[in-house]
Specification:
- The complex is a heterodimer.
- Chain A has a single domain (about 55-295), classed as Rossmann fold (3-Layer(aba) Sandwich), CATH 3.40.50.
- Chain A contains 11 helices and 7 strands.
- Helices cover about 40% and strands about 15% of the residues of chain A.
- By secondary structure, chain A is an alpha/beta fold.
- By secondary structure, chain B is α+β, with helices and mostly antiparallel strands.
- Chain B has a single domain, classed as Alpha-Beta Plaits (2-Layer Sandwich), CATH 3.30.70.20.
- The N and C termini of chain B lie close together (about 5 Å).
- The chains are: A alpha/beta, B alpha+beta.
- The interface of A and B includes residues 52 and 247 of A.
């Protein structure tokens, strides 16, 4: 158990067992957090109400295991299936109005910098494709234009899954959904390319089928956002209900979509500044550790 | 009736380093590692019965997990 996350001794006997497990056996302040903690350490997600076999919950699990310092992270969510999980995670989080998430994260990041000038506070935006690309595109792009230093993660399921399958900007051309029976007439919005041109220092597009890759990308994105500039990750989390798959077929769907030449083949863009930061990361990490221990002791 | 996953401890190859079912289970804290016996164990109250663990286990030819009715 770390120093930052503690339980008041007076409350130990009345707290639920899940909470005690989290405090005693969680991965807060573990310097080498990652998916390898699965199965032995208590994860930062409790039981949630997403569907059985939902690939989004796989992605959520991998992300929560990978964020570098959960005890000093604030996540900003938006309306959608992700908002069913946010109340169940053991990280500070804010639910924003639909589409407002990057604007709220901007204010939050600036306020945290004023309130805690000596501490490293990460802000991570996690929203669906409707919030990121359709309704919140204005806020998303403006935050990148202003080079706001936080990570934006988009769970791309290519439609509005929570409300029954309406057409979204990230839906692929020609796709038929339950509430888009004519088929989409336009191309999928190329948001990774737009992000790169809008000033993001790190952009990745991927699926959640490889935990080690998700871990690497999330850690890089959060650390670059901390020091260099905005970062954007687009993760394919297919809605198995809306594309007509069984609960156990979500993983195969992700693997099929990341094959060479497919639309979610892993691609990343790293700006020269971010690359030089990554190259010197090992030394900076040591310095950060020293600074963090100096601040708390 | 509700289907949940069940691990056959004799077939489970977790002691050789396999963590496939633990990696790909969509539910947090659902498949746990029994570090004394070195086998995966299912927390049945958390299992939603999606069968993803069966798929990944069978794909690796371990065939250690099957669905049982509860």
């Amino acid at each position: 158990m770390g120093k930052k996350i503690q339980i008041n001794k007076e409350f130990v006997d009345i707290m639920p067992q899940d909470y005690l497990d989290l405090v005693e056996n969680g991965t807060f302040e573990s310097p080498n957090r990652g998916w390898k903690d699965f199965g032995t350490a208590t994860e930062l997600i409790a039981e949630h109400s997403l569907c059985a076999g939902c690939p989004e919950s796989i992605a959520f699990r991998h992300i929560m295991a990978s964020i570098p310092n959960p005890e000093d992270t604030v996540m900003v969510g938006s309306t959608g299936c992700t908002s069913l999980v946010f109340p169940m995670i053991a990280v500070h989080n804010i639910h924003s109005l639909f589409g407002n998430q990057n604007a709220i994260a901007t204010g939050l990041k600036r306020a945290l910098a004023v309130r805690f000038p000596d501490k490293v506070k990460d802000v991570i935006v996690l929203a669906g494709d409707g919030a990121t690309v359709d309704i919140g595109l204005d806020m998303t792009l403006q935050s990148w234009f202003r080079k706001e230093r936080f990570t934006t993660i988009c769970f791309d399921n290519e439609l509005y899954a929570n409300t029954g399958g309406q057409e979204s900007g990230l839906m692929q051309k020609g796709f038929l959904a339950k509430m888009a029976p004519v088929g989409k007439k336009f191309e999928k919005v190329r948001l990774p390319e737009i992000a790169r041109e809008s000033g993001c220092d790190y952009v990745a597009i991927m699926t959640a089928s490889k935990p080690s890759l998700v871990e690497k990308v999330i850690k890089q994105a959060v650390l670059i956002a901390r020091e260099v500039g905005p970062t954007y990750i687009q993760i394919y989390t297919p809605c198995i209900l809306e594309i007509g798959k069984q609960s156990m077929e979500g993983l195969q769907e992700m693997r099929t979509s990341e094959a060479p030449g497919e639309r979610f083949k892993f691609r990343e863009f790293i700006s020269p500044e971010a690359q030089s930061f990554l190259d010197g990361l090992a030394e900076k990490k040591k310095a950060e550790k020293l600074a963090a221990t100096g601040a708390t002791s | 009736m509700y289907n949940v996953a069940e691990v056959n401890a004799e077939e489970c190859v977790a002691q050789k380093g396999c963590r496939l079912c633990i990696m790909y289970c969509p539910e947090a804290n659902c498949i746990q590692m029994d570090t004394t016996k070195m086998v995966a164990t299912i927390v049945e109250s958390r299992c939603k019965g999606c069968e993803l663990c069966v798929v990944v286990c069978d794909a690796a030819k371990h065939n250690a997990i099957k669905m049982v009715a509860r």
